[in-house]
Amino acid sequence: MKLRRHAWQARLAPCLILVVIALTACGGGTTSSGSDKYTFDFSNVFDKSPTFKSVGDNLVSQGAQVGIKVNRYDNNSDCATVLSNAKLMVQDKPDVAIDWMGCEGAGAAVGKIFSDAKLPCIAVNQQIPGCPYFNLVNKEFGVEGAKIVYPLVQKAGWTANDTTLILAAAPGAGAEVNSNSRFFYEDLANMMGLDKYTADQITDSTTTLGRNLVQVNGQGTGNGPLEGSHAAVKNVLLTIPANRHLIVFTINDDSGLGAWRAITESHRENNTMILSAGADADGINQLRTNPHWVAEFSVFFEFWSEYLLAMGVAVKKGIQTPVQTYCPQVVLSKDNVDQYYTGTTPKAVPPLPEQNKYLIQTGVLQKFGNIPGVS
Question: Domains of the chain by range and CATH?
Answer without folding.
Answer: 15-136+301-328+348-368 (3.40.50.2300), 138-298 (3.40.50.2300)
